[in-house]
Design a protein that fits this description.
3 helices; about 140 residues; Transcription Regulator spoIIAA; single chain
Amino acid sequence: MGPAPRVGVCAAGPPGTVEGLPGEGWGMDERAGSELVITTEHDDGTLVLVVCGDLDAYSAPLLDDRAQQFGRHTGTNVVLDLSGASFVDSSGLRALLSAHQQLDALGKTLVLRDPSDALVRLLEIAGLRGHFTVAP
């Protein structure tokens, strides 16, 4: 298990539980080894996905699955709150890029809120920092 989340935003449910868009049951992630919780919040018409745990090869497909539903959101921004993401590997980075591309195709913006310094550095090294809107 990775280090504890940096901020206390990850109090909802056991690892693997996921809540979805209103009226959507996102179920459990049954992939072995996955330690990811994604919950949703709404803030003035903005969809906020709070990511808690490891965004890695096991759990990145879970974010991919959720990104398929972004088109149902009527707002222009989707915020991915990464303050509780304890680890992001290249698979997680690919899932973030895929979510960004899907939203961009819909004329929407993906905002990465409070990513770790390590994730920002990974974005820079991969030459992807300019593709994302990053908010503190």
